Amino acid sequence: MELEEENKKEKYGQAPYSAQYPWLLICHGDAMHRQTFFSVSNNRYYKKNIPELKENKISACVDEWLVLESIISNDCYLWNFISNEKIQLPPLPAKCNISQCLLSASPHDPECLVIFLIETTLNDADTDEDEDENEDDNYNDNDNDNDNDNDNDNDNDNDNEDEDEDEDEDEDEDEDEDEDEDEDDDDDVKLITFYFCRPGYNTEFHKQDVQSIIGDSSIRIWTVFKKKFYTLIGWPNIILTRLDLDNDKGKITATPIANESPVLLESYHHFYKDYLIQSSFNDMLFYVHLVGNGRQFDIPYHFQVRRFDFIKGKWIKAESIGEIAIFISYPVKTGTTCSTKGTNLKKESIYFTYGRHLYIYNWITHSISLTLPCPHVSQRKNHHMHWLTFNQ
Q: Who has the most CB within 10 Å: 5, 195, 204, 250?
């Protein structure tokens, strides 16, 4: 693939864009302070330096609106990279892991909601503090008794000092091992919670335990379709479910949409990834099943696609995707689609990223071509890749 670099005529910090097809955005550098936009249709990349993206990563996006998450804290906000408008989101817990995020619509749409999947680790810190306080109280109450006992035992303490020190060292080692085991046990206990709100309106997030809503403690994959949230839940039968968010009441309800699982080949392969993708132009919901191969089973080599029929309530196997190109970010479970008409994009193809590379899977020949779209991006340093679509 012949590439061209263009950064002389573009305004500093202003991102190039086209509404006709997705752009591949690569955030890279020590603090994610460098950005490279790659045009898959024109085989050209644009180097940028956008201050708002420094020390931030993109958690979700709708059109030109991005949900930005700080890489040094849990501060999150919405940012429009065309108008530079910013909407601060309510604070998230200081100690938590932001697992996933979705944005249903642009913030000026009355149906706009942002939802986070938050992981927090349960521990006994509060209980330990209470126990320490009780122990201190008991110690103060028994000070006089302890003083008398110490006077009587001073001689014996001198005789047994060496033995006591050995025993204390053994006990300290046992306590250290117990503390390590307790820390490992604490790490295994996690609470998964939905945090959601309407950006610009709510000053606090609504919170609801995932287990209480879907009967499971984890979300397999999810997406936005027609401004509603959909997810696949359950195992081994994976059911398409709609998540209905009532922002006024702060409640989430789950409604099963299908009675069958879309999974096709996972029982025969050790590695696979799933994607729920909304068609960007004809209102279809796709399920993309990626199958891996290779020594570590982490090299994508085959795809299967199904389309959901909302009238029949079932998944339909796609024998062809026609003049459509599907774009997915691997291993991040996000994606989009676009029409190949009037572009240089390949029809019947799936574009996906892996490492620094861009792969193109041909649906007809089942072959995969490989390119390095932006060779200046370091292989050794962290980088994030995102497919961005625009409505302008």
A: 195
